[in-house]
Every structure is written in C-alpha cells, then in structure tokens.
Amino acid sequence: MTGGAMNAERLLDVYEQISEAPDAIARLRRFVLDLAVRGKLVEQDAADEPAQSLVGKIEAERKRQAKDGEIRKRDAKAVAMLPPPYELPASWTWIAVGNCFVYDAGAKTDPKNLVENRWLLELEDVEKDTGRLLQKLLVSDRASKSTKSCFNAGDVLYGKLRPYLNKVIVADDMGYSTTEIVAIRPYLPLYSAYVALAFRRPDFVDYVERKGQGTKMPRLRTEDAVVAPFPLPPLAEQHRIVTKVDELMALCDRLEEARKSREEVRDKLTAASLIRLTAPDTMEEDFPTHAAFALEALPTLTTRPDQIKTLRQTILNLAVRGKLVEQDAADEPASVSLERIAEARDADASRKSKRARGLPPSSETEASELPIGWEGVRLSDIAVSMRYGTSIKCGADTSLVPVLRIPNVSSGEVTLDDMKFGPLNEREQADLALATGDLLMIRSNGSLDIVGRSAVVPAEADGMAFAGYLVRLRTDVEHLNTKYVWMAMNSQLIRDQIEKPIRSAVGLKNVNLTEFGNLSFWLPPLAEQHRIVAKVDALMALCDRLEAALTTAETTRTRLLEALLHEALEPATDTLEAAE
Asked: Which residue intervals define the domain Type I restriction modification DNA specificity in the entry (predicted)?
C-alpha cells in the first residue's frame, strides 16, 4: 500500500492555510481531482488486478467489435497516444482515449424521429466544473429542430463545445443530446463515475484549452480527443477513488457554504457599521461615535478588494451631505455662487439646453437638514449649458476632429485611449468643443450602472468634440468646483434618482437633458466644495492603498495556495516518509 493517500484531515490542513485565497474552494476541488487521477488520493492494493491486464482485455474487445462490425471503421484502428503528462503508480497505465473508448458513440437522429417521452439533454442543463445536472427535460418539453445524438444509460456525456466549461456527466438513462455533447462509451465496462471525473481532471482541461485557442467558439476536435492520454487505474481502485472524491467534494461543499456564510456576515457587519454614518435619522452629535466605530471595525471586516467599493461609496455619500468636513460660517454661501452661475447662463447666447422650469422647491424638512451655507439645487441650477454630442460617424482618420465616446469616460476619468475622429465643420467644432472643467455624462447604455456616470474634462481634452451618447454639462468654473458635482453625480442620492425610473427599461437605458436637469442634490459654499474635494481625494488615495494591500495579500495567499498544492502533488520522497 502507498502512504500518500489524502484524507479529510489533510485536506483541511491545506485549506486552513489558504482559506482566504479568492478561489480557494475551486482550487481545492481541482486539487482533489488532480490527486485522484495521479493515484495519490487512495491507497493502492497489491491484490487489485493491474490496469495493464485491463488494457489487454480492452484491446481484444475492440478488435472483436471491429471484426463484427459493431463499431465504425474510424474506431477500428488503434491510435498513437500523445506523451503522458506525468508518471502513474505501477499498477496503473496510460491509454489513448481512442483505444479505450468509442468517442462520440451516439447515433445521429433526425428531430422528427425523436421519442416524445425520452430525455433530451442540452449543454445548459449541466453545471460547469461540477458535473451536476441542473435540470432534466424531455423531448416534449423542448421545441427541437436540429439533429440529435443518442446515448445509453452509463455513457459518459462530454460537452465538446467550449470544453473549458468542463461539463461532464454520467447518463442515468437513455436519451438524446445536442451534437455538441458526445457520448463516451468504453469497449470494456469501466466505472463510469471514475471516467467522468478523469475527463474533468485539470491536465485534460488544460490540454483541451490549448487545442481550442484562437477561436471564438472553441470545441474539442475528435482527432485531438482520441489521441489524448487517459489515466487508467485498476477497476477496484476506480471505485475507491470515486468514493473518496465524493467524500472530499462533499467536504468542499460544506467549506464553501461556511465561507459564503462568513462573507455574508462580514458584508452585513460592514454595511451596518457604515450605514449609520449616512442614515437620515443619525443625529449630528452621534456621528463621531458611529464614525469611530466604523473606522475601528474596518480592518477586521474589510478582507477583500471588492469591499473597498462600499467604503468609497460611503465617502461620497458623506461628502455630499456635509458630514465629511466642518462647515465655516465665514464661507460665502452657496446662494451667492448660484446667482453668479445664473448670470453666466443668461449671458451665454450659444447654449443649447433649457433650464428646468416650474419645479417644486426643496421641502421644508430637507431645507432644515441643510448644513449652514448650503442650498438644495437641481443640476439645471448650476448649468451654464447642457447639450448632446454629435451623431456623425467617426473612424480612425487622425486628420479629422478627435471625438470622445463612452469608452473614453471610464472610472470617473476621461481617457484618451482608443480615440475616434469625425468630419465636423467649423460650426460643429465650435458648438461641440470641450473645455477644461466641463462634465461629460453618459446618457445612454445597456448597463444600468453605466448610465449617468461622468468625468471631469481635463486640459488634455480641451477643444475635442464628444459623441451623441454623451451630454456636456458646462458650468461657471470660477464659482463651482466641477469635481464636487462629479462626486454628487456618483453619490447614492443621485444614483437612486437616475436608476429607479429606468431600472425596468428593456434594452438601452436613457436619461435625457430634462431628466439630467431635474437631478437634485445639496450644494455647499464654494470654499467648502474645495475642502470637500481635497478631503475626498485624500480618503480615496487611502482606499487605493488599502485596496492595493488587500490585492497584494490576495496574491500572496494565491501563491501560497499554489505552493501548497504543488508540494502535495509533487512531494519529495523523504518529505512523504517523514509525514507518515
């Protein structure tokens, strides 16, 4: 008997060291499969009939079936196997897939000849990686107009289209499948559950991925499948392997559920610690206590880079509610800035947008909540002009006018990558020219989260034009900090106003000029806007560092995981002996 068998305790030892790695459970499942097909998951038994004698019987049976015409001519001839990827125990052997199995064994059936009450399997019915059957439908449940493949109970069914999805199951009944699923049928009875897991093993997935590179819809070709090496253990050991794999996969299921529960609790605690900072009923005198608690709990609760997104959102929400910096009674109130912006708007004879009219004033309740010197406004109140961009077709001709598009408004910044250029005349260039401090807003997109996102135009984009799915908001940059407006646009207050009315829209989701103009938020004094922007920039830089630290920790855990799994798969002989 060998001494390197894996058990639940040893698996848990590995897991405990890498449990915080982002893909720990998935890697652990692959690890179990890798051990299984290398003969390192269960002990070998000298009393088992060795696989070499199985190969002789398989070859004899294949020749008999070829002689009796039970298999196709292409299957009758032995194939040359590719070099094996690793060594196997002495009682195991490698055999070419085509020499061990009839690959794509199912006869093709015209859709009009399908039996109504028989199983009809599609790729979507199988869960990727796990081989779990998600649903089992009959021919009568599906409107099928294409040719299907037949399969028998006990066949291993392998999804050859996009094989990296690793969709492999054992048929528990006869039926039909899409021709993108092939039936794999051994010449001599083997344990189907072992065959299925062996076709899901990591080195085979790597092999089929390499063969499918460079194509949009990769599929495993028959000629590549039949020459692939297949790890064949003694028949008795196949049963022991499957039993052990089932046991360890069940353990992985429990670990995954425990991890999911732990992360849910963590997320709820994080949300609870932050929500008190922005809750409408949080009293001003209680705010420092809630803030101190959130900051103290943050290192413990924040363990994943994606959790930083919640922190960033909280910072913006605090900023636009006057809770991030102190107010100063000496600041010139926001009402003065609004008067000057209105003067600039009235003086702008070329503006292409109308200010929203007849809108109700802020409620008395909202007005009472406003910090000193702040005003409740709508976007149209702070706009000198708002207009759509050009719908003219743009291309790669750099001699034309550069035109910013949705891809150039990303993560709150204007990027000049992947630029397009359009044939604009002088008047169009003048009307659509961007200026430093303009705000570009996305007005139409298929993604709810992208609609309404914006970016402040930098000096490098000065004079460039912009495309029709964008809106340019121009304000008086002497009396308004556009970066503060960008923060307001990304706060939950405005995101709710944008998303709720269009959430149920089908296809493209749109916000027009009037709807943009009606978006309401709180405007602080200009001096406080500058202080808020500086504070937010500093806190966002802190978030960047925290996110980078978490990413580095995640990378370290992933590398530790790889090292541990490599050590488990390729242990030194003396290490194994010492461990036992």
From this structure: 371-550
Helix spans in 412-525 (H)? 426-432, 482-490, 492-502, 513-518
pLDDT digits (tens, 9 = 90+) for 283-309: 555 555 555 555 555 655 566 777 778
Question: With contact defined as beta carbons under 8 Å apart, do 455 and 409 qualify?
Answer: yes
pLDDT in tens, 398-413: 999 999 999 999 988 9
Report if residue 298 sits inside a domain. Answer: yes
Q: Do 520 and 542 fall into the same domain?
A: no
3-state secondary structure 346-389: HHCCCCCCCCCCCCCCCCHHHHHHCCCCCEEEEHHHHCCEEEEC
Number of helices followed by number of strands (H, E) in the chain: 19, 23
Q: What is the pLDDT of residue 352?
A: 46
Same-domain pairing of 388 and 513: yes
pLDDT (mean) for 151-162: 95
Closest CA to 135 of 149, 120, 145: 120
CB 159 within 8 A of CB 126: yes
Domain of 511, CATH number, reads 3.90.220.20
- Single out the residue of 231, 226, 208 nearest to residue 95, CA to CA: 231
Q: Are 61 and 152 in the same domain?
A: yes
- CA–CA distance, 379 with 142 (Å, rounded to integer): 52
Look at the pTM and tell me if it is higher than 0.70: no
369 and 290 co-located in one domain? no
| Alpha carbons 208 and 159: distance in angstroms, whole number | 11
109: helix, strand or coil: strand
The domain boundary, picked from 171, 201, 233, lies at 233
Q: Could you tell me the residue range of the domain that residue 375 belongs to?
A: 334-524
CB atoms inside a 10 Å sphere around CB 522: 20
- Whether residue 158 sits in one domain with residue 137: yes
For residues 576 and 16, what is the distance between their CA atoms, to the nearest angstrom?
20
Q: Could you say which DSSP state residue 436 is in?
A: T
Alpha-carbon distance of 463 to 429, in angstroms, equals 8
Kindly state whether residue 30 falls inside one of the protein's structural domains: no
The separation between the first and the last C-alpha atoms of the chain, rounded to the nearest angstrom, is 13
Q: Across the chain, what does the average pLDDT equal?
A: 86
State the Cα–Cα distance between residues 424 and 464, nearest whole angstrom.
11
Q: Give the Cα separation of 564 and 575 in Å (integer).
A: 13
Specify whether the CB–CB gap between 420 and 466 falls below 8 A: no
**Do residues 305 and 169 share a domain?**
no
220 with 317, same domain?
A: no
For residue 35, give the nearest of 215, 192, 248, 222 by alpha carbon: 248
Model confidence pLDDT, tens digit, residues 363-376: 343 555 789 999 99
Residue 312 lies in a domain: yes
* Residues contacting 41, CB < 8 A, separation 6+: 5, 6, 32, 35, 241, 244, 245, 248
Yes or no: say if 469 and 453 are a contact pair by the CB < 8 Å rule.
Answer: no
The tens digit of pLDDT for each residue in 559-577 reads: 766 676 666 555 433 333 3
CA distance 320 to 491: 7
Rounded mean pLDDT of 168-195? 96
The total domain count for the chain is 3
Do 314 and 388 have their domain in common?
no
What is the length of the chain? Answer: 580
The most confident of 259-273, 291-305, 347-361, by mean pLDDT: 259-273
Residue 363 has phi, psi (to 5 degrees) of -70, 160
